[in-house]
Amino acid sequence: MRHPILFVLLCLAAGGSVGCKGDGSMSSQGVGGGVWGDLSGVRVQRFTLRNGNGMEVDLCDYGAMVTSVRVPDRNGGSVDVVLGFDSIGEYPEKSQYFGCTVGRVGNRIAGGSFELDGQSYSLAINNGPNHLHGGERGFDKYVWNATELLTSRGPGVRFSRSSPAGEEGYPGTLEAEAVYVLTENDELVIEMSATTDARTPCNIVHHTYWNLGGHGSGTVLDETLIIDADRYTPVDATLLPTGELALVDGTPLDFRAGKSIGSDFGAFPANGDDPGGFDHNLCLNGEVGTVREVARLSDSKTGIVMTISTDQPGIQFYTGNFLNGMMGKGGAIYEQNGGLCLETQAFPDSINHRGEAGWSDVVLRPGTDYRHVMVHRFSID
Ligand code: BGC
Q1: Closest ligand 1 atom to the C-alpha of 102?
Q2: Would you say the CB of residue 209 lies under 6 angstroms from ligand 1?
Q3: Which of 203, 206, 283, 298 is 20 to 30 Å apart from 312, CA to CA?
């Protein structure tokens, strides 16, 4: 199940700290960890990955999540570009899937139901009439097993959990992993993988909210975004794909040449319970299964640029429409559109569109591996 790029040259996997000096402080590169707190009596740990260029990533075993990414800006400072909270206790209460690993199936499944091998399955319904992000208690709401790593590409942490058959209504026991590595090329590499003992849909998704101006620096509407996608999946009023793979030409979803996120934002106004804004799956160009660059986000204030490469067919572009002015790290206020998610994935509700042209098969079978690679590369413009 482990991918050779990360693991062939794995030189050390230790239960204790790697890269820590004798006095407990961090050396310039490595991973250090410790207890962060507890949730209902379960111990929660946090880890910091650090590279030689001053980049640092904080990870947590609750939800196998990212809680901070600190990157150098063009003025010689360091900017935390990820929304999060100061204490673990705030996550279950306030988090809208901040930084976490979403599963067993990210995004929506129509009516929470699907058929597999002639049998109907009913999943937890937790978003209007639909199933969202794995259900009532998805992968984001568990404490995962964690192992610190020192790989040939850099320090990392491997998170794993066993999702029992029947969890949230899904068939088959799923053994899932999310591996994070910070490289000397300023890449945060995320590899999600899974195996199963019975056929099941599987689409594990990473859900960090980014703001390259710094978390709490206001909205992301003045950031510039490129998405390499000729098509998108139009949705109905409950955000379920209609099945059509429509061209982005002439629509607000045409990000191929790059544009400010705010420029066409008015095309999706608030309407009743719908807060408005982007919340769309785009169909990525290039070959599915091949890791290729699919998105580029930049902020003119800090000069920070983030590119995303993936092997997945789609990306959910979500502009934090439900953020509501909650207080985050260091007293920062996360107003509406104060962060955005770029969630690489199989298209939403793929399990109910099997066999349709352009839709990928999200059924994982015993003896095969699910694999999802996401590379976030940071630089300064
Ligand atoms: C979905 C949104 C949802 C949000 C919850 C996103 O991945 O696309 O529709 O509201 O997650 O945080």
Answers
A1: 7
A2: no
A3: 298
Give residue limits of the domains in the chain.
29-380
Digit-coded pLDDT (tens) for 255-301: 999 999 999 999 999 998 889 999 999 999 999 999 999 999 999 99
State the catalytic residues.
207, 343
List, for the chain, all residue ranges whose pLDDT scores fall below the cut of 70: 1-27
If you measure from the C-alpha of residue 319 to the centroid of ligand 1, how many angstroms do you get, rounded to a whole number? 9
**Looking at the whole model, is its pTM more than 0.85?**
yes
Cβ within 8 Å of residue 32, ≥6 positions away? 17, 18, 19, 20, 26, 47, 48, 50
- Contact 316 CB / ligand 1 (< 6 Å): yes
Token representation of residue 347: 């298209």
CATH number of the structural domain 29-380: 2.70.98.10
Cα 326 to middle of ligand 1, angstroms: 17
Distances (CA, A) of 376 to 45, 80, 308, 350, 379: 23, 15, 5, 25, 10
Structure tokens at 144: 């995962």
300 vs 221: CA distance, rounded Å: 12
